[in-house]
Structures are given as structure tokens and as C-alpha cells.
Amino acid sequence: MLNAICELVRCFTGVQGHWIGADPKPVQRIYFANHTSHFDCMVLLSVLPRSIRKLVRPAGASDYWLKTPLRRWFSQEIVHFIPIERLKPTRNNNPIKTLANALDAGSSLILFPEGTRNDSDTLQTFKSGLYHLCKQRPQIELIPTYINNANRILPKGECIPVPVLCTVTFGEPLFFDAEESRDKFLERAEKALKRCAQNVVN
Amino acid sequence: MLLIKDPQLLILLAMIFGALMLATIITTVINCKTKDSSIFLTNLNARLRAWWVMVTIFAVAILAGGGTSIVLFAAISILALREFITIAPTQKADHHSLAWAFFVVLPLNYILLAVHWYGLFVIFVPVYAFLCMPICSAISGDSKNFLARTAEIQWGLMLCVYFISYAPAILSLDINGYENHAARLLCFLVFVVEISDVLQYVFGKSFGRHKIVPTISPNKTVEGFVGGILTTVVIGTCMWSFTPFSPWQAALMSLALSLFGFGGGIVMSAIKRDRGIKDYSALIPGHGGMLDRIDSLCFAAPLFFHLTRYFFAH
């Protein structure tokens, strides 16, 4: 089902993946991407080869994705998302713990460290979750992933998607560095994503 | 079936495939002669493979008859408009206009063709889409670059939807003594325009010295232009027996199509230059995007339709 939907998304958006800094290998990774549209996750999944796609689970806000039956069906049955509690995090549903468990189970992750869909043209400051997760699982490869034009297919607040060509650019992998402060690490990750954005090829 | 009704159409299509076969043989010889594969040769091979696919799709659509050609051109329009909108910097406020363009204006344009409502077809995009789309964008309340944004959407609709749809519109013309043969005219139009493109490319690559507009297209040369267009006129004239034209009329038609096709090529190159891109997309291997392939057809199709309608249809 997911593969069929991804084929549809590929037809509709003509999306192309450009692996400029990393190779499409089925190894465990965290893909962290800019977030402007509901289409982000789908175009990213669509450009991944099937062997990688089946390993990947996107993280999404549980308050949003579990709200209506349609969203629940899509997030749980189709993309097998990892629900992130952002309103009332407790010891039991701590987002970092949930994500670390998913990594331990062998999944790769798609994270949007800007936190929510971004309406502006510039990248928002990253939330610190990415740092805390990497601190707990420092061996994981981080791939900066820049998604171009998905916001033009379906901007925040719209419900009819329009066909616009988009690209997904995968940059050079990053690793956690225990010496580095939280802010320095997040800054480095942001810069890596911005470098991808500059290297978008049409 | 059109196939049985019109054996001449079959001969015409066979000749087009013959030309493609000839090109394949020539390319194979070049491939065998040169040991190392250059970028040029890789591109040439990719181009040729794509031609086989495109000509086959076109031939199947023509032979299937009915509304198949209209459906094919509607699909071409969607792909072309998607490329055009991608490079046009529309804003979030244009989202509704774009949804209308893709899901209402484009299908309606082709439905009007399919139901032979010529009077409305000719004014639908240039008048009513022109009036309604800016209203839609204005209601969204963003005035930044408003004129440029609405102009870009209208340009996209005119080029990618309205002008290109004049090609299948030929099928609805009633020409004296040429009833039910309009499919041949559509083949003539597409073949002459595309062969003119190809021959200008071949002559340009072989003998090209003097660039016509170096600031816009480094590939267009005087030698390519003259050589390509003269050969096209000769080929077009030889095809007169498939058309309602006399030989000299076929020659003039071919000349007009080549000139407008050339014009379309440089206009679409100017847009690409301004945007800093080489191709509109990577949809067709070796050729670039759909718009890179149909740029000349967009400009030549309306001219061909109107000349034929004015002088030959009743």
C-alpha cells in the first residue's frame, strides 16, 4: 500500500532524489529534513529505494496525527509513524525514549527538527530533541535531507495539492560528537541542511 | 477504425518510422566508428531512444482515433504546465489559482475541443481564464509582485494548454474533399515542426559557426537555421500528397512552421536563461523536459491551425 501511494506521489510530483553526499544504502540512519508541507514525508519516502523505504519510520506529533480517523489510518497503517507527545510529555511517553526504542528495534527515522511545518522561506531554529536523541544513540548516521518545493504542492492550510516538480537532496552524513555543546551540535546540523539547500539541482 | 478508412495515414506513419529507422542506422554507424563514448554520443543515443518512445505513443494515439489524441495532448499539457509553474515563482496566495488552472481550466479547454465547441474554445483561456485567474489571486490578498505572478500563470496557461491544444484542434476542421483525413494533417504538423528542430540541431552541430543569439541560446547557429529550414521545406513539400495543399502551398506551410518553431525555441530558451536552468526538467532522457520538446510546437500549432482554417476549411 505504501509503495503504491509512493508511486502515485512520484507521478504527481515528478520528485527526484539527489544523493550528493551519501549513497542510498539500507543502513540505519536518521534523515532530518526541513518541514513545510504534509507532502514532505511522502516525497521523501517516494525517492527512497524500496529496500530502504521499508526500514524507515517518520516521527509525527500524536496530538495532530491521532486526532481524526483518517489521519490515524494514514499515520498508523500506511507510514507506521512514531507518535511524538508534544503537549504532555511524561516519563512513560517521553519522545526521546520512544525514538530511541524505535532505533533499537532497527528502524531508520525521518525527523523534522524544526518541530512544526514552517510557513516562511528560511529554515527555523532546530528543536533540541535531535541533540538529546543523538546523545543517547551516538553511533547513528545523520543525513541532512533538503526537500524543495513540497510547500508549493500543498502549503500549510490548503487541502488541494497542485502538481509542482520537487526534489529531495541528501547531504553528507553527520555524527554526534560528545565534546560538542548542544547549541554547537544543532548549529552544525542546521548548517549541513542549509548546504543541501544551496546544492539543489533542478 | 481510422486505420481501415485511411491507408494514406498508415503510409505516412510508416514513413515517419522509416525516418527514425534511418536515424538509428546512422547513429549505430557513428557509435561503431568512435571507440570512446563522448557526452555528445551518450546524449545522442538517449535522444534517439526517447524519439522511438515518443513516436510510438503518438502513432498509437493517432491510430486509436476518437478522442485519444485529445487525451494525449491534455496529458502533454499537464506535464508542460507543471514544468512551467515549477520555474515560475508563484506565491502561496496563488495556490487556489493554480488549482483552478490544473483542475478546471486545463480539462475544460480540452473538453471544449472534444465537443467541437470552437467558439468558446478560442476565447476560453485567452479571455475568461485571463479575467478570472487574477481575480482569484487578488482575493487571496497578497499584492507582492502581483502583476508578475498573474502574468506568469497566464503565460503558462497560454503556452502549455491553449497553444498546444491547437494541434489536436486540427482534427475538428472540415476541409473540402479531405473529410475524415484530418489525422494526416496533425501528423504533418508534428512531423514538420519536429524534423525542423532535429535538422537545425544536426546542421548546427555539423556546420555551426555563427551564433544567432549567443546571449540566449549558444546552440542556435546561422548554418543550422538555414540548413535545417531549407531541408525541412524540401521534406515538407515532398509530403504534399498527404495534405490538402498543393506542392507550393505545402512548401510555404513548412517554411511558416519552421520559422515559428524556431521562434518558439528561442523564446523558451530566453525564459530558461533568465531562470539559470538548462532544461525544464529531466522527464525525457536526452531531451530535457516536456517543454524543451514541445516549445516549437506551441508556437507553430496555432499558426498552422489558423492558416489551414482560413484558406482550406469551410
Q: Give the second-level CATH assignment, the architecture of chain A.
A: 3-Layer(aba) Sandwich
Distance between the termini of chain A: 29 Å
> What is the CATH C level class of chain A, in words?
Alpha Beta
Approximately how much beta-strand content do the residues of chain A carry? 15-25%
Query: Which chain pair has the greatest contact?
Result: A-B, 14 and 18 residues
Overall pLDDT of chain B, averaged?
92
The biggest beta sheet of chain B is recorded as:
none
Task: State mean pLDDT of chain A (0 to 100 scale).
Answer: 89
Cα radius of gyration of chain A in angstroms: 16 Å
Provide a count of the helices of chain A: 9
Uncertain regions of chain B: pLDDT < 50 for 5+ in a row? none
CATH topology of chain A: Glycerol-3-phosphate (1)-acyltransferase
Distance between the termini of chain B: 25 Å
Oligomer: heterodimer
CATH superfamily of chain A: Glycerol-3-phosphate (1)-acyltransferase
- Principal-axes geometry of chain A comes out as globular
Q: Biggest β-sheet of chain A, characterized?
A: 7 strands, mixed
| Radius of gyration of chain B from CA coordinates | 20 Å
The share of residues in extended strands of chain B comes to under 5%
Number of individual domains of chain A: 1
Helix content of chain B: over 70%
